[in-house]
Q: What sequence folds into this?
């Protein structure tokens, strides 16, 4: 009889997380590279893409209904040593998100005008945002498949493969930005249009590579028709995790879109400041984002293998690392805030306000890091409904109304908005901490271990 710890030793938290860290770093760097290159066009171009990014993030959340749910279910099947079930789950997830991606792409292109009118954009900003929505929004189905296959490969422990594809996609995107923004190699200077083309092309190439990669990495081969046939057993488990998990992200992104609408009332300068600040702040939580993704895979496999107590302890270990690294990054970034903003803009008002927001971020970001890690662990265990319920209550009961009250009504502007966000993150973090401590999640597993799993010594932690 095989030892259930064999796979888990090979897929330790550290081994899973470090390639994810590089992948997340590359993605964050790509976003900042886009903003940096667009700053050569104008602050208005940056502001317009900042608005469109909110819409794109909303679409990504919808795609994560399937991607996140599939990742958790596959991780539990792997921990339970049920490869056939894992492969069939992959087939259902890929087909489901392909159809959904095509639908969302069509909706965004055909309804772009009513969507953009929600933000009350000035004429120049509206034109920039519209062309970006047509090109990038029209090819969003590629991102739907990318997210799904990324999640599948990571759940199988193939985080290095995801890292390499992400690296290639980022290099292509940055090269395309350079060519079309600055007119390199005789290409036309297309500005925002060029950035959109570079994004769409790099994602399409990445999608093709991932499809080929997935076909060669499935442990148990399934018939082609099984990829195009929904099986109730697997779809139901995917949706049991995916719907509430994506619901929590959906609530967050809807609240952020609402808050962005408030910020547009403060003018293009405030909107640009928000975009620059959020891109810099993202560096504070790169490690936490990587840890949360790694935690989802690791905890999912431990729960699938029936290792509940070990999973309980490992979450706290990951959380300590995430908080420690986030605090160090937050302090360093706040200290160098003025120099960082000077990279993007020469507007002293934007630099001064953005630097102040980075100081507030020293308190805000540990709360956000805690939410990322603990919620991922809860989701991986099968306890996905509680985080979304608390998220809806706190986001819409605290951050949204307080953002308007402090930022607009009382006139504190972006500083007021940031204080509201700070309170939101910390209230939810405290609630999630006590949820994990309660161990209610230990009764939520979706998958039962196979007969090959036996009780044995605890898994040796990798330091």
A:
């Amino acid at each position: 009889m095989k030892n259930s710890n064999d796979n888990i030793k090979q897929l330790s938290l550290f081994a899973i997380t470090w390639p994810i860290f590089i992948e997340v770093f590359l993605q964050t760097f790509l976003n900042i590279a886009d903003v940096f290159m667009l700053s050569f066009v104008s602050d208005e171009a940056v502001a317009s893409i900042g608005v469109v990014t909110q819409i794109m993030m909303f679409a990504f959340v919808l795609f994560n209904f399937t991607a996140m749910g599939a990742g958790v279910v596959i991780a539990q099947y792997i921990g339970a040593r049920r490869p056939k079930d894992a492969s069939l789950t992959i087939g259902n997830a890929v087909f489901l998100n392909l159809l959904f991606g095509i639908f969302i792409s069509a909706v965004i292109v055909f309804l772009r005008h009513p969507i953009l009118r929600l933000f009350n954009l000035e004429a120049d900003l509206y034109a920039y945002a519209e062309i970006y929505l047509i090109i990038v929004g029209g090819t969003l189905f590629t991102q739907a498949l990318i997210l799904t296959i990324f999640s599948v490969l990571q759940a199988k422990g193939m985080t290095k493969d995801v890292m390499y594809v992400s690296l290639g996609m980022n290099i292509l995107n940055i090269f395309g930005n350079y060519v079309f923004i600055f007119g390199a190699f005789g290409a036309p200077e297309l500005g925002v249009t060029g950035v959109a083309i570079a994004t769409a092309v790099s994602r399409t190439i990445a999608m093709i590579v991932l499809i080929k990669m997935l076909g060669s990495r499935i442990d148990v081969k399934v018939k082609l028709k099984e990829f195009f046939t929904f099986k109730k057993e697997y779809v139901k488990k995917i949706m049991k995790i995916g719907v509430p998990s994506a619901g929590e992200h959906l609530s967050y992104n809807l609240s952020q879109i609402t808050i962005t609408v408030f910020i547009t009332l403060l003018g293009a300068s405030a909107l640009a400041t928000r975009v620059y600040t959020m891109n810099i702040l993202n560096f504070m939580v790169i490690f936490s984002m990587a840890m949360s993704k790694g935690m989802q895979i690791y905890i999912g496999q431990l729960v699938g293998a029936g290792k509940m107590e070990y999973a309980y302890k490992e979450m706290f270990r990951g959380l300590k690392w995430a908080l420690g690294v986030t605090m160090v990054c937050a302090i360093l970034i706040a200290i160098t805030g003025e120099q960082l903003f000077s990279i993007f803009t020469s507007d002293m008002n934007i630099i001064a306000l953005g630097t102040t927001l980075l100081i507030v971020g020293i308190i805000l970001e540990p709360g956000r890091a805690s939410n990322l890690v603990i919620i991922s662990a809860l989701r991986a265990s099968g306890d996905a409904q509680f985080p979304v319920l608390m998220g809806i209550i706190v986001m819409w009961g605290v951050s949204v109304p307080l953002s308007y009250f402090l930022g607009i009504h009382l006139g504190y502007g972006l500083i007021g908005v940031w204080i509201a966000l700070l309170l939101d993150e910390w209230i939810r973090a405290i609630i999630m901490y006590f949820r994990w401590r309660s161990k209610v999640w230990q009764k939520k597993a979706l998958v039962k271990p196979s007969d090959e799993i036996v009780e044995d010594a605890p898994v040796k932690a990798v330091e």
Remarks:
- The radius of gyration is 22 Å.
- The chain has one domain: 15-439.
- The first helix runs from residue 5 to 10.
